[in-house]
């Protein structure tokens, strides 16, 4: 794994109690960042915190159920109060639900848009201006291959991730000249609890990709960590596909 110096930086990772978020929190901490582990499950969140601390890192758990502007703004404020000004924001929390369009429940559609689009929007609205005022920062959005290619039974989920891709570009244009870099990682199939609930989709996608296998959360976290680091200083507004080549073929 590449090593980056994030000593003295404070990172907020949403959806950090499992899967990609957990792996990202651990990796950022390994590189010296103090991490706010945000999520709904306190037991799993504290397990991440203890793992970081056991490895000599710094971390705190902040409970968060991201579903609207108020919950996003509250998390931003609590994170800053707990670990200090946020230098790195990883928008990883998301709702994944799949099914045919004609049978898709409205409440599930609304939940996807609330967590995958609205919450990141208002987290950035609270955190990015403060980053700019201090002269710099990094935002990394975790989107999906579903936001750029057509996948059956993924219309609502793909629409949410596509929106987050576009927000990434818009925020890069809005905040880049102010010292805040905004990028996204678009994973392909990854072996996470969320992916396991999606049935055969991860394995089917992996079979069509040049890599030919389902990724580990750590492989995605490595890309997120790079984009959060100063080593990616000339990378802005990019949607980095980490999908085993599936979107290329």
TrEMBL record:
PROSITE patterns: ADH_SHORT. GO terms for biological process: monocarboxylic acid metabolic process. The keyword Oxidoreductase applies. Keywords: Oxidoreductase. Residues 9-188 form the Ketoreductase domain. The keyword Oxidoreductase applies. Pfam families: adh_short_C2. One of its GO terms (molecular function) is oxidoreductase activity. Belongs to the short-chain dehydrogenases/reductases (SDR) family. This is Short-chain dehydrogenase. The lineage of its organism: Bacteria, Bacillati, Actinomycetota, Actinomycetes, Streptosporangiales.
